[in-house]
Amino acid sequence: MPATFNLSDYRSSILFAGGLVLAAGLAMSLDGGLRLLALSGATKVDYASEGLFTPAAPRALSDAERERAVVAWAYIEQNTRAETGWVDSVAGFPSTTLWDQGSYLLGLVAARQLGLVEDGDFDDRVRRMLDSFARLPLHDDKLPNKVYDTRTLAMVDYANRPAPEGVGWSALDIARMLTAFRVLERHMPQYGGEIRDVLSTWDLASMAQNGELYGAERADGETRLVQEGRMGYEQYAARAAAMWGLDVVQAISAERVLDWHTVSGVDVPVDLREHTAFQAITPTLSEPYLLQAFEFGLDSEALRLAGRVYAAQEQRYRSTGLLTAVSEDHIDRAPHFLYSSVFANGKAWNVVAEDGEAHTDLRTLSLKASIGWDALFDTAYSEALVTAVDPLADPERGWPAGIYEADGAVNDVYTLNTNAIVLEALHFTARGPLWNVR
Predict the structure, then answer these.
(1) pLDDT in tens, 173-219
(2) What distances in angstroms separate CA 361 from CA 79, 302, 321, 328, 351, one per listed residue?
(3) What count of Cα atoms within 13 Å lies in the side-chain half-sphere of residue 145?
């Protein structure tokens, strides 16, 4: 990758390749990893105490909130591919993952429920998407590949180069798509037959074995399985997999991997699977808790963990004066995708790339996390976060990813995930979790 980044080139394969490998840093080899975990102790969640925060009750959107939803929908309108009905993960670059198509479908349902999409347009979008899924080539004829060309549905690598045999599958990405399918079917049962026709060709059992989630990596002509998921993401994906009857009994609770670390005076949940032993990054950040809240509603465990993740970010602001809302995000310069965290790889407020390298100078105020935390907990601090990111709205392009902490510059990359999560957040404000039918 080049050492410098020209904004006019941000649609290049370099950016996309750096930005669509979420599962890679959250997977561990079968060789020794699970055996080591079995020898580790776990810290329990304190269910006797109340959570630090209570999710906000549904209410009518303000004019400003409705405008935020309109801006987010503009990204989807501008980046839908006529050939397939799929949406580009990064504006203008014709490639995607199942994680992002799941984001699209969830954002589409949210937009319909908010009255941004007419029924005819909604039906056309859903049917084009499902028709493409019916034609989708699968990795090893089992499960969807990690990356596809949004124009042709061809399996590709992260640089969008043809990869006829695929590069593997991601259990986390597939689980997000499974969530979207279940939410769609719950709201509109008329699509259930087509969804199940699609899934009848997927070998879902291959991604969940012995209670754990498994991804696949292809190298040197062979495919190997890896346990996939770290705390937060793992539980989110397991809840989705469980709705389709998969064996995820180990992964669905964080307790077996839970440890606590004091960050900015707050005890926050961290994954005890140390990155040095398991060769995978271990970020504690906002996104998986926000997704659980907006799509399913937080269970008692996730509510307690989410409250502490949020509280640490607020406390950092109280201590330093720096507005803090951290998540994984694309960035508009090398290395193009970073996990801004509360705690990662043994360090508080670490910012790590997929290879574990630290980039704390590139910490951003995440737009989706800012709007997301405000929708979830609706506090004075979350209102300050939204006030900071509101000026970034672009009615033509949607919402960019956020603001660099170091110099206040805009992280000027536009992505499907950011804009879809904004739609989900505003749906949560107006109607509660997407799983609820109101």
Answers:
(1) 999 999 999 999 999 999 999 999 999 999 999 999 999 999 999 98
(2) 31, 30, 17, 15, 8
(3) 25
Are 369 and 287 in contact by the 8 Å Cβ rule? The answer is yes
Q: Where are the beta strands (DSSP E) in 11-126?
A: 27-29, 95-96
The residue extents of the domains of the chain are 11-431
- Which pair of tokens denotes residue 423? 């739609």
Bridge pairing between strands 222-228 and 258-263: unpaired
Of the chain, the end-to-end C-alpha distance in Å amounts to 48
Q: What is the DSSP letter of 351?
A: E
**Residue 391 DSSP label:** G
Tokens found for residue 3: 């050492």
Cβ–Cβ < 8 Å for 332, 411: yes
pLDDT tens-digit map of 14-65: 354 545 544 444 554 443 344 444 444 456 888 877 778 999 999 999 999 9
Give the type of residue at 76: I
Cα torsion 79, 84, 86, 92 to 10°: value is -30
In one-letter notation, the amino acid at residue 435 is W
Contact 365, 385 (CB under 8 A): yes
CA separation for the pair 81, 95 (Å, rounded): 10
d(CA 28, CA 294): 28
Topology annotation, domain 11-431: Glycosyltransferase (1.50.10)
Burial group, residue 111, by CB count within 10 angstroms (0-12, 13-18, 19+): buried
Distance CA(399)–CA(393), nearest Å, equals 5
Whole-prediction pTM value?
Answer: 0.92
Q: Which ranges of 218-299 would DSSP assign to H, the alpha helix? A: 233-243, 275-278, 287-295
Quote the DSSP letter at residue 90: B
Dihedral angle of Cα 305, 309, 315, 320, to the nearest 10 degrees: 160
